[in-house]
Design goal:
The chain is of the alpha/beta class. Helices cover 43% and strands 16% of the residues. It contains twelve helices and eleven strands. α6 crosses α8, α7 crosses α11 and α10 packs parallel to α11. It is globular and about 50 Å long. The N and C termini lie far apart (49 Å).
């Protein structure tokens, strides 16, 4: 017993001196300095993301427990891109929920419909909901006011770790203007990535910034069997390269496309931007969040963590 207490005493005394030494060491000062980096400010000022900044981002990624606040989360995801850290980001909302639960649904705005007949598409979408069980693959789920949809979506998922949860509306609503400004500059100035665009075939803007473009037709779900047979093998050839970033805007099919490609090569970046990139593909946006005074233009999203596979929100 005496030996045990003595051992504890020397153990804690040694730990104190190690901590004290670290406190005044160069390593601690470096850690403290990078911990005070304002990522949002760097992005706004178009500052270069050097090794020190990217080291901080990797620390944040490793220590992540749950999504950051709505605005900080967007800065974090952008910083992963700027630091060339491979990851994927897919999103689930009410449309995806209706498909997974077998509920008929249609949307005139996005020109797709679900009539509960394509079991293959439904099964593939359900499978994609578990993408976050692989490290650095994020899944966006709806905010608090869509709690029932979130709960339903996660009931199909094997995801139990909130560190890979994020917000379905991350690029929308209150975050849209910041995102719009950033991505406009990124596609014009980035020479570090080959950007592959997978989006609606109704392209009206100059997309010469894209390394390659793969068009998605209207009524993508109804045409999925035929489309996937030709599209997915072509995309699979592209992911074998390095430094590829996929910009995807393909409705619920985006989740199937991204989850398929990640299995082939998880060393690139794959993001479902959805309607947030309409302005750089179609030349206009159909969403209220893109308009000054729009219904959801100032809407944020609450942070949450997971407990027993159900989203628990923090006010």
């Amino acid at each position: 017993m005496f030996f045990y207490h003595n051992y504890s005493y020397y153990y804690y005394l040694g730990s104190f001196f190690i901590s004290f030494k670290f406190l005044f060491s160069k390593n601690y000062n470096n850690y403290n300095s990078i911990n005070n980096i304002n990522i949002t400010e760097l992005i706004q000022n178009e500052k270069y993301f050097d090794d020190k900044v990217c080291r901080f981002i990797k620390i944040r990624l490793k220590n992540r427990i749950q999504p950051f606040g709505f605005e900080d989360e967007l800065s974090f995801i952008i910083s992963l891109i700027l630091c060339k850290i491979p990851f994927s980001f897919i999103r689930f909302s009410d449309g995806e929920d209706f498909i997974m639960t077998g509920t008929s649904y249609s949307t005139n705005r996005d020109n797709w419909a679900w009539n509960n007949t394509n079991k293959k598409f439904q099964d593939s979408l359900i499978e994609s909901a578990s993408i976050c069980t692989t490290p650095y693959n994020f899944i966006g789920i709806p905010c608090k006011n869509w709690y029932n949809h979130s709960k339903s979506i996660l009931s199909f998922s094997k995801c139990t770790n909130s560190k890979y949860m994020s917000y379905t509306s991350l690029f929308y609503n209150k975050n849209y203007k910041f995102f719009q400004n950033w991505i406009t500059k990124f596609i014009k100035s980035s020479n570090r990535w080959k950007i592959i665009l997978v989006a609606n075939s109704l392209i009206k803007e100059d997309i010469s910034w894209a390394y390659k473009f793969f068009p998605i037709p209207e009524h993508v779900i109804e045409k999925w069997d035929e489309l996937s047979a030709s599209l997915l093998p072509k995309l699979a050839d592209e992911v074998k390269q390095k430094d590829i970033i996929f910009f995807v805007s393909a409705g619920p099919a985006a989740n199937l496309i991204i989850s398929y490609l990640v299995k082939i090569n998880n060393k690139n970046i794959y993001i479902d931007f959805g309607s947030a990139i309409e302005f750089i593909t179609k030349g206009f946006s159909t969403r209220s969040y893109s308009k000054i005074g729009g219904e959801t233009a100032l809407l944020g999203c609450e942070s949450f963590y997971l407990e027993n596979q159900a989203p628990i929100y923090i006010e």
